[in-house]
Structure formats: C-alpha cells, structure tokens
Amino acid sequence: MTNEQKTFIEKVGTLAAADVKKSGVLPSLTIAQAILESAWGKSALTKKGNALFGIKAGSSWKGARLNCKTFEYYSGKRTDIVDAFRAYGSWEESVADHGAFLKGLSRYKAVTGERDYKKACRAIKAAGYATAPEYAQVLIGLIERYDLTKFDGVSVPAQAKPAVTADTYTVRPGDSFCKIARTVMGNESYAQALAEANGLKLNSVIHPGDVLKIPKK
Length: 217
What we know:
The protein is of the alpha+beta class and 217 residues long. The protein folds into two domains: 3-159, Lysozyme (Orthogonal Bundle); 162-213, Membrane-bound Lytic Murein Transglycosylase D, Chain A (Roll), CATH 3.10.350. It contains eight helices and five strands. The strands form two sheets. The protein has a three-stranded antiparallel β-sheet, with no helix packed on it. Helix 5 runs antiparallel to helix 6. The model is unreliable at 155-161 (pLDDT under 50).
C-alpha cells in the first residue's frame, strides 16, 4: 500500500465510520466502493465534483451534477456511455449522501444494518447498485486486500486476503488481468499495464499458480 492509498483509506474511513451511525452502511463497504468508483480519488468525477461514488443524478436530485464518461454492462457486455452524476462541495458531503441514498431506498434494506461485509457486498450488487458482473467480488477483494474491516471494528483473517506478497501476485482460479487489476490495484484500467509488466498481452492466458509482477502506478 502506498502512502497515498493509506491517506485515502484513512480519510474516507473516518468519514464512513461516522456515517454508519446514521445510515447503517458498513464502513468497509463504503470505503471499498469509494476506492473502486473514484479510482482512489483520481477520477474526473471526484476531482471536479468531489464525488467518491458514481451515483446518478436523476430527476429527484436537486444538487449539483456533472456529465462524465462511464460504462454499464448490458446482457454481460460492457457499453461506454455519458451520464449525469451527483456532485458535491466536499468528500464529507459525498459520503453522507451515499449513506442517505442507500438508507432511503427500500431495495437496499438488506445492505443497511448488515454487519457481515461479504453479505453487504453481495446485497448491494443484488439490489442493482451496479451492473458490473463481478462488482460484489471486487468489493470483497478490496476489503480483504486493504483490511478495511478495521473500520467496522473487526479484522479480516490473514488467510482470507488475496495472494499478494510485496510486488507480486499469485494467480487464483477465475482470475484475469482485468479482475486482478480491479482487486489488487483498485481499477480495471491498470489491466494493460499489468499484462505488459509481465511481458504478456491483455488477452494472454494466465493460470492458477502463476506469479505476476505488480507494476507501480
């Protein structure tokens, strides 16, 4: 973990730990979503609109909004689109609205108040928060990789964490460059760099047990 990543986690974690008292949303889930959806705070939406989460600005949203490029999965196929998202004056406002958004919709009832991070991740995916097929698994991977449950008041057992040692990663069944990039590096956009760092192409086949070099971001 870089110092920049540590600072991001601590900042969002502090906000999420305070928000759970109002929303009931598990802090580890909130932090993992922020990492994934804001690309560690580096996305255009986050830089321009302090939005840590990709919450769409529908007709009921009366606050600021920004049009940004994004993608959705339709019938399992990724489609690039431009959509309007909620924007804020600060990260604190973003975290607070994220909690209020989930608490305010009945379909997320299984998410708010859930104390098991794996169940919470699966519940938010099942409720339709995101269309990405592996959204829940990616969130779980981030929580375990960065021990985010410490903000929930518990700690993930060491054996549950991804097989990452220093700057290498041991491939597990079902892995792909995109999946590893999302889980280990925090964003799918690093998949190409990951493949090239190992002298491979993005469509190259990798096998369980292979040890990959993790490039610096």
